[in-house]
Amino acid sequence: MAAVTPELALKPKPAEAPLSHRLSVRINEYVRLARLDRPVGTWLLMWPALWALWIAGAGRPAPHVLIVFVLGVVVMRAAGCVINDFADRNIDPHVRRTRDRPLAARRVSPSEALVLFGVLMVLALLLVTRLDLLTVKLACIGAALTVAYPFFKRFFPMPQLWLGISFGGWSVPMAFAAQTGVLPRVAWVLYIAAVLWAAVYDTIYAMIDREDDLKIGVRSSAILFADMDKLLIGVMQAMMLYALVLAGHDMHFGRWYRGGVIAAGVLFLWQQWLIRKREPAGCLHAFLNNQYVGLAVFVGVLLQYVYGG
């Protein structure tokens, strides 16, 4: 047996990081997994909910309903990101934009992701049970649709449309149910507008990953549309604006609301300019610009109730 030299005996062991540091690192990874560090996606889901809450509440949504929906959007968006990354954990490493995500980079385990998803869904359930039974039923349908979304990319040629149906717009009928207990025609017109809008901004987002998605066999509307992508995005933008006009007509809204819709249209024109060369940087800028589209419509709704006319 070899003798231990004094130098080896005195050599200190590597110091273990403090518990507070290790916890901070884990929490940071969970925050990144839930995209809480990237609030743009939350705003894209929040704006349709706010449109619906203000219209359903005739300009004065019930405070408790407003609080539940704001918190619910944050929690459900986080849950949707977690289950999406769980489903794509073996795909994301092959896509330049997503390869550094916590699950893709193996900094978070699949079991950790599922636990986090479960915690977020429990929080969402606790929030929605503060509302009426119809809203709870709609929330359960919406949760099922949201969980199914990540798997649609395997076979559905336009998962961006499913994103709108399941995630981007489902808060609209829920907001009307929570505020009024009924689902009038305007609720479904606004829902259609929100679905089309989600298909628009997520198709623009998918244009960034088109090359990688083609290699690994992931489906997207950007791939489906091919060289007609800009035209078909423009068609969906026009359809979304028309749905908003119909909703305003149904509510007898005037110039303030129309001004918000016009502002949204101007922003859509700017997005068309940004994606004209299909460059990833321009497409990302256009995607991010959509948060201002939702804001413009909301400001129009808000001012319509404040000033009328």
Structure overview:
This protein has 309 residues and is mainly α. The chain has a single domain (32-307), classed as UbiA prenyltransferase (Tetracycline Repressor, domain 2, Orthogonal Bundle). It has helices spanning 6-10, 19-33, 40-56, 63-87, 110-128, 133-152, 159-168, 171-180, 185-208, 210-216, 221-225, 229-250, 255-274, 280-307. Helix 3 (40-56) runs parallel beside helix 14, helix 4 (63-87) runs antiparallel to helix 5 (110-128) and helix 7 (159-168) crosses helix 9 (185-208). The longest helix is centred in the last third of the chain and has 28 residues, at 280-307. The protein is globular and about 65 Å long. The N and C termini lie far apart (94 Å). The mean pLDDT is 89.
Which tags fit this structure?
Tetracycline Repressor, domain 2, 309 residues, 14 helices
SSE topology sketch:
Elements: H1 6-10, H2 19-33, H3 40-56, H4 63-87, H5 110-128, H6 133-152, H7 159-168, H8 171-180, H9 185-208, H10 210-216, H11 221-225, H12 229-250, H13 255-274, H14 280-307
